Amino acid sequence: MNVRFLVFILLAALISLSATPGNYSYTFAVLKYNGGGDWYSNPTSLPNLVKYCNKSLGMNIDPNVASIEVSSPELYNYPFVHMTGHGNVVFNQQEAENLRNYLLGGGFLHISDNYGMDKFVRPQMKKVFPELDFIELPYTHAIYHQTYDFDKGLPKIHEHDSKAPQGFGIIHEGRLICFYDVECDLGDGWEDAEVHNDSEEARNKALQMGANIIQFITMEVKE
């Protein structure tokens, strides 16, 4: 697929926010990867974030979230892909190349470490971008200051190792193409309330930060 044509498809999907109800502007997906890690954890997370964005930000995202394999050519149909889990992640050469082309072509990847994923996902993302590193985003970064302001960066949703939450990014030619939350568990905070028994305050902060991520990628396109 021609990269410029791919960019056109993705940008059109993001910009088209005026569609009528039932005729959704775009669809999001959960990334299905190999290696034995539980890519399928937090099944209510992304659907709940979609509902929140539709209600609170007036977006028109399809509530039916897809699951997409890293190697699939259908990856390019989804402008936003969410990746999570607790364990092992493995990308083969074809998968790494496909994910790289998707991200360089205008796609966006959000990775949420559900605890235990960090040591696996970092070397795999290095296969995708050997020349780029995750960098910690400053609290002043625009992703923390959309409709909702997070002056101290990511909210802490779950305690694991008593470490501060961190937000990392992969930036290519000035564009943030991947956002990675660590020691935060945004995805857990998006889940149905009874799953983790998080407080309403914690869940609301998680959903607000998630909405900021979605709003940020649409803002980048409009600029």
Question: Brief description of this entry?
Answer:
Helices cover 36% and strands 17% of the residues.
Mind explaining what this structure looks like?
It is a single chain. The protein has 7 helices and 7 strands, in the order αβαββαβαβββααα. It has 223 residues and is α/β, with parallel strands linked by helices. It has a single domain, classed as Rossmann fold (3-Layer(aba) Sandwich). It has a 7-stranded mixed β-sheet with strand order 2-1-3-4-7-6-5, with helices on both faces. Strand 6 and strand 7 form a beta hairpin. Helix 2 packs across helix 7 and helix 3 packs across helix 4. The longest helix has 23 residues. The protein is globular and about 40 Å long. 41% of the residues are buried.
Quickly count the domains: 1
Order of helices and strands: HEHEEHEHEEEHHH
CATH class: Alpha Beta
Low-confidence stretches: 1-9, 11-21
If helices are DSSP runs of H or I spanning 4 or more residues, what is the number of helices? 7
Number of strands: 7
What percentage of residues falls in helices of 4 or more residues? Answer: 25-40%
What is the C-alpha radius of gyration, as a whole number of Å?
16 Å
State the end-to-end distance: 25 Å
CATH superfamily: Domain of unknown function DUF4159
Which fold does the CATH topology refer to?
Rossmann fold
Query: What CATH architecture label applies?
Result: 3-Layer(aba) Sandwich
Largest sheet: 7 strands, mixed
Spatial ordering of strands, largest sheet: 2-1-3-4-7-6-5
Give the overall shape, derived from the CA principal axes: globular
Approximately how much beta-strand content do the residues carry? 15-25%
Structure class: alpha/beta
- Give the integer mean of the pLDDT values: 88
